[in-house]
Amino acid sequence: MSENTHLHEEPSYLVDTGKRKGILAWLTTIDHKRIALLYLWSIMVFFIVGGILGETMRTELYKPGQQFYGPQTYNAIFTLHGLIMIFLIVIPGLTVVFGNFVMPIMIGANDVAFPRLNLFTWYLYILGAAIVVVSQFTGDGPPDTGWTFYAPYSTQTPLLPWAIYATAWIQILATPVIGITLLMIIAERTFHIGFFDPALGGDPVLYQHLFWIYSHPAVYIMILPAMGVITEIIPTFCQKQIYGYKAIAISSLAIAGVGYFVWGHHMFTSGMSKEAIWLFSILTFLVAVPSAIKVFNWVATMYKGSIDLKPPLLYAIAFIFLFMIGGFTGLVQGALATDIQVHDTAFIVAHFHYIIFGGVGFAFLGAIHYWYPKMFGRMYSNRIANIAWGFLFAGFNLLYFPQFIIGLEGMPRRYFDYLPQFTTAQQISTWGGYILAIGMIIMIVNLFRKKGEKATANPWGGKTLEWTLPSPPPMENFTTPPVVPEKPYNYD
Amino acid sequence: MVDSEVKHITGYPVYGKVLIVLLVLTILTIVIPSLNLTAATVLIALLLASTKAGIVMTYFMHLKMENLLLRILVIMVLGIYASVILLTFADYVFR
Q1: A152 with A165, same domain?
Q2: What torsion, rounded to 10 degrees, do the Cα atoms A207, A260, B93, B73 define?
Q3: Residue B51 half-sphere exposure, CB side, CA atoms within 13 Å?
């Protein structure tokens, strides 16, 4: 594929070529690459805010008892941290940034199908984010409840579009459920129709069902594009054909399919019938199978490959390691007997962050380091990127692994205070959080210091269509429709 | 629908009949809960709602004129929603 280049003299998408210039040109752009960057900047701002909130929580938990804010503030801060991180970053994150930037190019398109609608979604996203933040400061003060409030052209397409395709199915099928649930809450509060409130004859467990019918598939909305990114990075940095193309594509669809039916495993201790628990437990174990197929195929792709430990591959390997820990500990919760022991403990906090930050987060960072030369036309320092990765990997594990241990020992989650025997583990966690923050700062400075050398069209030796375009690509990508004569990842 | 595809025009009499059927089913939806059929009420209400949604998709949303792949996709989605409802009731029926 890489021999079929599309290098031409069109100005890059970063240059204002229309009537409008500067920030106005960006705010009215319908180019998928610019819209991807609008999302990237927005997500980075939210991430910094959410990250600072998380670090204050770790500082508060450094010692037993109150340090510098009280329990009500702690509850409000972990709720806002969860809302920002889940709804404003990890659910949209990979799809809106890399799905927007890379996927149209990978399938040989000049833009997405509805470019104006694409821009409109960014405005909706910003509006929604503003409402989320403003709502924290209206009514009776901030809530303290916790966050629990596109198609492939052919089989020749790379595997990231398959992952995003599977994600799109979940988004379309699951999102209306949360919308309907919100309408039901409005009807209950406004017209006193009893859906969830026992005082009105409603059933609070029904709210839990409806919330998790959306929110568990939302976990797959987060992780499937991440898996797609890892599937792109590994063949490039091993210079080897992907092992099991069809198995990876089908497993994405299988995760999307089975993952839709496992929501009940969040409710094992909520008073569900034992028959329902039995069913949801089996379905939860089933969804581990396609995930394991992907991990096997990634490792098999690396086997006997020309492994080049550049930053994107380091993030991909870290993803596999952390995702496996998160995945296996997920099975502990998928089994009813062990779930009762660890439910609502710090074990859940550790499992969740190993999947969402260790999985989705590290894949996002891997994606930024992989497509950064294509997005901005510059290289970053590999050495500094490797150092940042080291801090992030070490900090992450120091931060979250102790939570597995104290969780098993009985440390409940979402608690402002704790017993003295948990102090050492909590302090290791807090130091891990600070090391993680240092890694983030090094990584951001390295990526955005504007000193990197100019990137060539294909700095990593990739085989997918985006590497046939100049770095950065021109406004409408291809001057002539690309012809794809061979399968993707053909390194033989 | 793509421009090159054949355009289908459905006459007003068909839409009129569909409207009458939908109105009858709506009246039934309102009447059934007052008959005190206990647990069967929910099942009948779901069947009536599904039938109304099916008629709307078939005629008003032109699914009747669409190709087989699209129909299969719609049936698949309905199957997923049916499974979601079944799984939810695996809790409520046995609780």
Answers
A1: no
A2: 110
A3: 15
Domain shared by A205 and A99, yes or no: no
**Is B91–A173 a contact, with Cβ atoms under 8 angstroms apart?**
no
**Partners of residue A260 in chain B, C-beta under 8 Å:** 80, 84
DSSP 8-state assignment for residue A125: H
Comparing alpha-carbon positions, the chain A residue that sits nearest to B77 is A173
CB-nearest partner of A273 from B83, B84, B95: B95
| Structural domain count, chain A | 2
Measured CB to CB, residues of chain A less than 8 Å from chain B are 173, 205, 209, 213, 260-261, 264, 271-276, 279-280
Both A134 and A147 in one domain: the answer is yes
Longest dimension (CA), chain A: 69
Among the listed residues A378, A472, A487, the one whose alpha carbon sits nearest the alpha carbon of residue A10 = A472
User: Exposed, middle or buried by CB within 10 Å (0-12, 13-18, 19+), for A170?
Assistant: buried
Flag whether A238 is in a domain. yes
Q: How far is CA A245 from the centre of its chain?
A: 23
Task: Report DSSP letters for A326-355, one per residue.
Answer: HHHHHHHHHSHHHHHHHTTBHHHHHHHHHH
Residues A111 and A170 in one domain: no
| Residues in chain A within 8 Å Cβ distance of B84 | 213, 260-261
Domain total of chain B: 1
Query: Given B80, B84, B91, which is nearest A272 (Cβ)?
Result: B91
- The sign of the CA dihedral A466, A355, A40, A307 is negative
> Does a structural domain hold residue A180?
yes
Residue in chain A closest to B90 (alpha carbons) equals A276
Q: What is the pLDDT along chain A (492 residues), one digit of tens a residue?
A: 445 566 667 788 888 887 888 889 999 999 999 999 999 999 999 999 999 999 999 999 888 988 888 888 888 888 889 888 988 898 888 889 999 999 999 888 888 889 999 999 999 999 988 887 777 777 666 666 665 542 233 446 677 777 877 888 888 888 888 889 989 988 988 999 888 888 888 888 999 999 999 989 888 888 999 999 999 999 999 999 999 999 999 999 899 888 889 999 999 988 889 999 999 999 999 999 999 999 999 999 999 999 999 999 999 999 999 999 999 999 999 998 899 999 999 999 999 999 999 999 999 999 999 999 999 999 999 999 999 999 999 999 999 999 999 999 999 998 889 999 999 999 999 999 999 999 999 999 999 887 788 999 999 999 888 999 999 998 888 888 888 777 778 887
Query: What is the residue range of A81's domain?
Result: 14-157
**Do A153 and A31 have their domain in common?**
yes
Distance from CA of A216 to the nearest CA of B (A): 13
Identify which of B81, B84, B94 has the shortest CB distance to residue A273.
B94
On whether residue B80 sits in a domain, the answer given is yes
Number of A–B residue contacts, CB under 8 Å: 36
Interface touch A213/B92, C-beta < 8 Å: no
CB contacts of B80 in chain A (<8 Å) are 173, 260
End residue of a domain, out of A132, A157, A182? A157
Give a yes or no: residue A295 inside a domain.
Answer: yes
In a domain, B4, yes or no: no
Q: In terms of DSSP H, where are the helices of A61-202?
A: 71-83, 93-94, 100-101, 103-106, 115-135, 159-191
Domain-embedded: residue B55 = yes
Domain contains B76: yes
Closest C-alpha to A256, from A232, A224, A292: A224
Q: List the domain range (segments joined by +) for residue B22.
A: 12-92
Rounded to two decimals, the pTM is 0.85
Residue A478 within any structural domain of the chain: no
B88/A275 CB distance under 8 A: no
